[in-house]
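Continuing from the previous page of notes. For each protein in this section, the sequence appears first, followed by its structure tokens. Read the first protein now.
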Amino acid sequence: MGGDDPSAIRSLAITAEDAVDAYAYGRENPGTAVLRITPPFHGRMRARLHVCRTDDAAATGAIHVPPGDVIDDDVLEAYPTLEGEFDSGPTDTERVRKRHAEAVGEWRSRAREAIVDRVTLETVDGDHVVEVNRLE
């Protein structure tokens, strides 16, 4: 049986798609998306994509894992930006959007293959390292 103690968690199951979608959401939108783990906690847990309107983790007992924590740092750094893309004027807007969408699509493919093996969960009792198991 599970309980409220997140130190019971030994492994975390995630889909690469949830991790990538959550990270991209945070880069492209004003909101925040996380991988959410909800109690009761037990040895093997599933984390799911969750868009946060307000951080309710303290009230619900959930653990919110930033998606950047489960994707390799080198891939995170390669996320395509729009910086400097509009220097040639507003007539290029559609071309820039298309190029950016293609770049993000390529990044997403790389990121789905760059899920880490372990992640540190931040709990009220301190950091807790768990294995990451990728679901297909």
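Done with the first. The second protein uses the same format. Note its length before scrolling.
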Amino acid sequence: MTLVIPALPPVLLPVAGGGDYPVGRIFCIGRNYADHAREMGGDPAREAPFFFTKWAQAAVPSGTTIAYPPQTRDYQHEVELVVALAHSGRDIPKADALSHVYGYAVGLDMTRRDLQAAAKAAGRPWDAAKNVEEGAPVGPIHPATAVGHPDRGPIALAVDGAVRQEGDLADMTWPVPALIAHLSTFYRLEPGDLIFTGTPAGVAAVEPGAVLTGTIAGLEPLTITVGAAAA
């Protein structure tokens, strides 16, 4: 094979205990906590989850200083449980869904909220609001063989040491098995796919210089610094 332009390098995230996880695709579930759904003006009783995507290149590891992105004055944090898949499958039954999971991590779905609000008002896609360079930080991925399959326990986000988001994984409207089963009706899920599972209430804007720390019981924290505006 002769490449006519340089290929992008693979996106790798550290695994707790050693090794790297290659990122394929990133799927994000919207409004999977009732309090956040209401916070964003949504209805937590809707019938099925909805999702959007991010490029793999949006994923960056804990300890990164991410650039404040252009075209926004309202860059907001959303702390989430991230599911890393190990096996492929389509139309996966909920009862079999967890067998497809490699592990779990703390993640941030960073969002240009002003662009999202404008897109909603115009009935347009959210891509520019959600698919942001360095907009999907992910902490160390813990193999499920080590931590099990977390379905309850505190999830929180602090900015400069002050807690802004707090919730419990048990508050998810659609637990992880239901999310995997639902996504697999649209796509053949593959090893390397990441699923961001939604965020509790308390999302808010950050400014350059802010230090964000995401925590989930049983997982290593994720720490990110918001840097200066992107060049």
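What the second structure shows: The two ends are 34 Å apart (CA to CA). Residues 165 and 202 are 5 Å apart (CA to CA). We return to this in next week's lecture.
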